[in-house]
Amino acid sequence: RIAERTELMIASGFVAEVESLLKRYPGVRPFESVGYAEALAYLEGRTPAGRKIPPGIEGLKSEIRLGTHQLAKRQRTWFHGQFTRVPDLKFFTLEADREKLSSALSEIYV
Known about the structure:
The protein has helices spanning about 1-10, 15-25, 35-45, 55-80, 100-110. By secondary structure, it is mainly α.
């Protein structure tokens, strides 16, 4: 899903949006967030140190996907850590656990 969303963002004019926002609000903190930071580096011609990425827009897509995956992992780790003291709490991944989720919900709401 991250790859699909990244493709859609780029196809929908994300780079032009970042250029426009950069002209209006240079140096604001939101440019440090995932997606915007990578687009800003792309527009400024900066590449990540110690890592080879594809040239051009493909490299930008690659960096956005990587940053988004890393953010999602940090969020999952944080979220799981918040509930370690709740013994009956169950986590589901919608795509992989659709049947388990459906079964668990039917037990609760029947």
